[in-house]
Amino acid sequence: MKLHGFPMSPNTRRALLGLEEAELAYELVPVDLMSAAHKQPDYLRLNPTGRVPVLVDGEFALWESNAILRYLAEKVPHKALDGATPQTRARVAQWMFMNAAHLSPALAHVFAHTIRLPEADRIPKLVENGRSEIARCVGPLDKELGGREWIVDHYSIADVSIAASLAVAPMIGIDLTPYPNVLGWQRRIQERPAYRKIYG
Fold this sequence. Notes:
By secondary structure, the protein is α+β, with helices and mostly antiparallel strands. It has two domains: 2-79, Glutaredoxin (3-Layer(aba) Sandwich); 86-195, Glutathione S-transferase Yfyf (Class Pi), Chain A, domain 2 (Up-down Bundle), CATH 1.20.1050. The chain has eight helices and four strands; from the N terminus they run βαβαββαααααα. The protein has a four-stranded mixed sheet with strand order 2-1-3-4, covered by helices on one side. A hairpin with a 2-residue loop joins β3 and β4 (60-63). α1 runs antiparallel to α8 (193-199), α4 packs antiparallel against α5 and α4 packs parallel to α6 (157-166).
């Protein structure tokens, strides 16, 4: 398998973390966003949206990092990275979809309008809205993690998905100290060999 991605991208790191947790052999093919490699015809044939990452497994190409996580979990069912029952799989999907639709975009808005964009292009209201949305997502996550180690009843791709998003929180000034269960969960994830390999 080959993962085409930008190594510093949270979405690429999400897929890399999933690959490491699945213990599958892969090659990382760097995609240089700075030189617009993701907009070139060869790359757009893999992912017509021009985003990273893309997983290529033989003739099969798959984009969207959360879809990649689901695919990897299917390939290694003995690792139980998804759920064993329809209810647990649905709960895993619930948190992954929340992350994809709400938490991750809010973090991206705060990053864009505090760090990435030139100061003249930054919109403070988007930062304010992003911070509110992050709190709206992380509060329920903290409650869910009360009295348990992982988001569902075992370590899963829901943990991988959200861990990759929240890894950027310190860089963009998001204070997670009001969420002690989330902080404890982060520490447990950061101790895993796969996380150490990807995040150093």
